[in-house]
Amino acid sequence: MILSNHSDNRRYHGFAMPTLDEEERREYYRIEDSVALEINRIAGPGTGDDPGHHDTSTLFDLLSELHVAEFESQHLLRQLDDRDRTTNSFLRAMSKRIDLLGQVVAHTALGRLGAPQRVIMSEGGLQFETPQPFPPGTLLSVKMVLMPQASGMLLRARVTQCHALTVGDFDVGMEWIDLTDAQRQLLARHILQRQAAQRRLAREQTDPDVNQN
């Protein structure tokens, strides 16, 4: 997997080739991030499954559904008529409670997944390092906690590339498959928020007066 560190127009060759418009959009919306991951092969018919990951599966199913449902309800909250302020306030309070509950569940899952690791993320897929090789074409179940909002996502992916590194690990690239619109939008929102935070931090480091304005 080839990734230049000297250009904002970095190419990420681990993903399958989409249409031109999609490629340009996904090329821009890519970030370096730190996330908690649990990655498992999706067992085929008649194959044994890895029993070690079942303890987080139910938790992540619930967490992923919770965040997708919360995301899908946001546009409805924005459409509430300001004249019905009592209902508006009540629903927003409920949304806040659900968000806090999701954070509690996410932090519980985070403790089971272990320390966050460095990845390169886009709407199209993920690049990461792992001690375990995954041949191209392997289908994976990906449990991922996005920080700092502690959003849990349970996604499916297909390995597109796997290269051995000199330190003994493997550099793996994979593309998301079967994403729902809500899941894709959640990823896009997280990427945009991280990009904005990184640009803000860069401005503060180059111009300390920015923080005082």
The major pleated sheet works out as:
6 strands, antiparallel, barrel
Strand content: 25-35%
- Number of H- or I-type helical stretches: 4
| CATH fold-level topology of the domain at 20-40 and 56-66 and 102-206 | Thrombin, subunit H
Note the overall shape: globular
Please report the total strand number as a whole number. Answer: 6
Distance between the termini: 42 Å
Fold and architecture overview:
- This protein has 213 residues and is of the alpha+beta class.
- The chain has a domain at 20-40 and 56-66 and 102-206: predicted glycosyltransferase like domains (Thrombin, subunit H, Beta Barrel), CATH 2.40.10.220.
- 42% of the residues lie in helices and 25% in strands.
- The protein is built from four helices and six strands, in the order H-E-H-H-E-E-E-E-E-H.
- It has a six-stranded antiparallel beta barrel, surrounded by four helices.
- Strand 5 and strand 6 form a beta hairpin.
- Helix 2 runs antiparallel to helix 3.
- It starts with 19 loop residues before the first helix and ends in a 7-residue tail after the last helix.
- One of its GO terms (molecular function) is cyclic-di-GMP binding.
- InterPro entries: PilZ_domain.
- Residues 95-192 form the PilZ domain.
- This is PilZ domain-containing protein.
Short overview:
The chain is an alpha+beta fold and 213 residues long.
